[in-house]
Amino acid sequence: MGILAKRRALGFGACALASSLWGCGFFFGKIALAEMGVAHMVLYRFLFAMVPLAPLLVTHRPRLNMREWGVLGMAAFLGVPVQFLLQFYGLSLTTVSHASLMVGTMPVILAVGATLFAHERMDRVGWVALVGSTCGAALIALGGHAVGGATMGGDLLVVVSLVIALFWILMNKQLMERHSAVVVTAYGLLLGTLMLMVWVPVRYGMPPVAGVSLKAWLALAASGVLCTATTTLLWNWGLTQVPASQAGVLLNMEPLIGSLLGVFALGERLGPKAWVGGGLILAAAVTLTTRSKTRVREQMPVT
Hints:
Blueprint: H1 3-22, H2 25-33, H3 38-59, H4 66-93, H5 96-103, H6 106-117, E1 120-122, H7 124-143, H8 152-175, H9 181-204, H10 214-239, H11 244-247, H12 253-264, H13 272-290, E2 294-296
Antiparallel strand pairs: 1-2
Helix pairs in contact: 1-10, 1-12, 2-10, 3-9, 3-10, 4-8, 4-9, 5-7, 5-8, 5-12, 6-8, 7-13, 9-10
């Protein structure tokens, strides 16, 4: 296996691991939401995320120009306060299974966005894998028997947050053409966390400290360190090795992991549809990483 093939395989592996860890985010979020509001939960999540990222701010100095700082600031605004406040407010109105189903639409959103804005062109095999993976995510979510009720409003808010996440991903990918994934990740999340630190206390009051259980603190720490800092580093580095449209298929590992957590942690049952869906996701991931080829189209010269 050549060097490029190895780096491509590692890139897919990083994106798959990131997506798997993201699959735990709704689970940990539900635990914390039982004891605090959405905005305070999101703020704590990113404060915990900055703990392992803080040393990287010292060891990796940014070399961004003013325009690039503007792009990073806009990406941070969309990707942190806007995306996460909408997404977890939606989660508070729906179930983990329904939220996972909505996340299953993200690969389609990302593939279309990468085609329109990032000049990527995925081949027929890639699109077939994309459709199969998304169908698998839908089967998994529909195959589980969720506890509690779901609302259309909550589901739609999750979808809106995913559309916003598209622009966060593509702007980060643009910046990583000239800067390291570590710099884009660490400083992007720092800017987003600072925005939350300003907005949340002013709008919702100071976050609670007393009365929060150890279980909730552990869930917040896990969501910050594992589901935010680690995932974003892995995902952004993976995007430097593989096209965004191909990496998007691996996002469907998230509903797969979410469904497994539902079975073993929340007592949900998975029917035959969910097992078939898991098989579709794995088959699509294998097909994508071994057979699909994505080309980057040349941009028209500006006159």
